[in-house]
Amino acid sequence: MKILVIEDEVKTAKFLKKGLSEGGYVIDVAADGLEGLHLAQEVDFDLVILDVMLPKLDGWQVLARLRATEQKTLVLMLTARDAVLERVRGFELGADDYLVKPFAFSELLARVRSLLRRSTSRPQEILRMADLEIDLMRHRATRAGQRLDLTSKEFLLLTLLARRAGEVLSRTLIAESVWDMNFDSDTNVVDVNVRRLRSKMDDPFPVKLIHTVRGAGYVFEAEP
């Protein structure tokens, strides 16, 4: 499988190319947004790893132009920007996943593999499970046709769980992805917010989608 890395930091680009090549992928690298956009439009890549802070065209512009031409290549945003609203913006523009620097390469590789397992399917603007529907472009979610009143962080949490449906996500991963924090065992922010999301998204409905995996985290899937 072919991956395009659009990254202007030379050390980071070399690190990603080396690690992903050792993982069996064919890697091309672009050092600015304009070159990256051209390659992404001209070459059939399975995945684009896209930095936000780029010369010539930034990552938002590259992503927006790709999606404006109905380019459906999977895009993993890779950036030092860690504000929740920045992540929401990325998903609204059509990003498929989002990873904040600094990151562990093992997590990046896991994200890449997870995305590429879905590469034979067209990237969705709407995620569905049971009677839940998440409209990524409009930033809204409904169950059984009822609009869910979610905060931006609750929507980001729900989107994270839904995009990685069937995977057990640890509290550490959730805390880092949604709240930009290293998980502290004395902090119950993840459990509290999952409980709040459940009260809006699961409790009023017969089919439960968020499940606790004791000692491991949470998994998003319909009850059998």
TrEMBL record:
Signal peptide: none annotated. Residues 124-222 bind DNA. Residues 124-222 form the OmpR/PhoB-type domain. It holds the Pfam family Response_reg. InterPro entries: CheY-like_superfamily, CusR-like, OmpR/PhoB-type_DNA-bd, Sig_transdc_resp-reg_receiver, WalR-like, WH-like_DNA-bd_sf. SUPFAM superfamilies: CheY-like. This is Heavy metal response regulator transcription factor. It comes from Acidicapsa dinghuensis. Transmembrane segments: none annotated. CDD domains: REC_OmpR_CusR-like, trans_reg_C. Coiled coil: none annotated. Keywords: DNA-binding, Phosphoprotein, Transcription, Transcription regulation, Two-component regulatory system. Residues 2-116 form the Response regulatory domain.
